[in-house]
Specification:
alpha+beta, single chain, globular, 17% helix
């Protein structure tokens, strides 16, 4: 069964956690004992109705404040698909948490309050979804019950969002009017909005086409681990484990190991249950090569005629996540797939104003700033343009002293 990963986004109090709670509740994905526990928590909080947002807001601080702080992952399935939900925070100070959830998502579920329309944080999240290359965007215009299920209110918000998104790369944009609190157009069609002729949120999640989103042309296999059992049964076994980041690998394929440039052929593609006839993204497998080559963690297996360019001077977009400001000449550690290298921030080209999308000069970056920068690494990394491959085109930056992750970045070598 096909798996869809999606992230919720939008401003605080737009109803993200309530929508996810409603989605889980109305699809019968919540055990009875958990529903009873949430009902008791709602009663202790003095609420007249069960607060479905508590199904995802699991931290004590989240329940006390009525906000989402950390990304909450939930899993559910219907007869048509399996789903992983990343319920991301709406507060600006937790933008970095939203970035983490969106970076691995197939679809972004952006909530917009029907009364207020686009806010600063909604614009920030919409821009980040576009920047992170999330290929599908479903805009749920929420709280339609508070505007009397008005078609005019829905069309006004849809036009506002469409106008903002035309300045960004969003290949697939869909709008749905909903009331997460009452369940209108979440799992079942709303009788109170009979003027709306489209599908529900669940229907879109079940039917959106995602197979063509994966890059099946550029064969990329970052090596995560070298398997050497050294047992009597597998005495001479040597394989390279990892997750296929792009393309297709089959036994007999000619491959090249980067950065050494050594070539060989694929002797076997091994899965958890034995040999496979092929492997493609995002499968986790072990590749055995016909020759004994020096291959280690951080190397990349690709095709000789289609290989990424090793780069040390990297042009990238980053989201700075740390509370400490950073300026050019800062020393950092860059982690790309399984490869860790020392790096220096050479230049801040510009910072993006998420409200206007204008570019501004910046001498330093602070928490949640989005900027184009130039980095210099001590050793080359084998990367692709992020728009071509989200795995080999992304990286994180780490403070070498504190070991904290301070930024997430997207490579754009075509404009270096």
């Amino acid at each position: 069964m096909e798996l869809l990963t999606f992230v919720t986004a939008g401003s605080v109090d737009d109803g993200k956690s309530t929508l996810i709670g409603r989605l889980l509740h109305d699809t019968g994905s919540i055990p009875d004992d958990q529903i009873e526990a949430v009902a008791r928590s709602s009663e202790r909080m003095g609420l007249d109705e069960t607060n479905l947002a508590l199904l995802t807001d699991g931290l004590r601080a989240e329940r006390e404040q009525g906000i989402t702080i950390d990304v909450a992952h939930r899993y559910f399935a219907t007869p048509r698909r399996k789903f992983i939900i990343a319920d991301a925070p709406g507060h600006e100070q937790y933008t970095r948490n939203m970035v983490c959830g969106a970076s691995v998502s197939d679809l972004g579920l952006l909530l917009v309050d029907a009364r207020t329309g686009l806010t600063e944080q909604t614009r920030r999240h919409a821009f980040l979804l576009s920047l992170l290359g999330v290929p599908h965007l479903l805009v749920a215009v929420n709280k339609m019950d508070l505007v009397c299920h008005s078609r005019a209110a829905f069309e006004r918000v849809s036009a506002e969002v469409s106008d903002f998104m035309t300045r960004m790369r969003v290949p697939d944009l869909t709008f749905v009017p909903i009331s997460a609190l009452n369940g209108d157009n979440v799992v079942r069609p709303s009788e109170r909005m009979d003027w709306y002729g489209g599908g529900t949120v669940l229907h879109h999640l079940e039917t959106v086409h995602i197979r063509s989103d994966r890059n099946l042309v550029d064969a990329r296999f970052p090596v995560q681990y070298v398997l050497r059992p050294r047992s009597d049964e597998y005495h001479d076994y040597r394989a390279y484990a990892g997750q296929v980041a792009g393309g297709v690998f089959r036994p007999g394929d000619e491959v090249m190991v980067m950065p050494s440039g050594m070539t060989s052929t694929v002797a076997s593609v091994d899965g958890p249950d034995g040999p496979l006839d092929r492997a493609f993204a995002p499968m986790s497998v072990a590749l055995r090569l016909a020759d004994d080559l020096d291959v280690s963690r951080g190397d990349l297996i690709c095709r000789p005629g289609n290989r990424p360019e090793p780069l040390q001077d990297i042009d990238a977009m980053i989201c700075w996540m740390d509370g400490t400001r950073v300026a050019p000449r800062a020393r950092l550690q860059l982690k790309h797939t399984g490869r860790d290298v020392r790096a220096q921030l050479r230049e801040i080209v510009y910072r993006v104003d998420v409200n206007t999308l204008h570019r501004a000069e910046a001498g330093s970056l602070g928490a949640n700033d989005i900027a184009r920068v130039r980095l210099r690494t001590a050793q080359p990394i084998m990367c692709d343009d992020y728009t071509r491959n989200r795995t080999t085109g992304s990286f994180i930056l780490i403070d070498p002293n504190t070991k904290r992750t301070v930024a997430g970045g997207m490579v754009n070598p075509s404009r270096r």
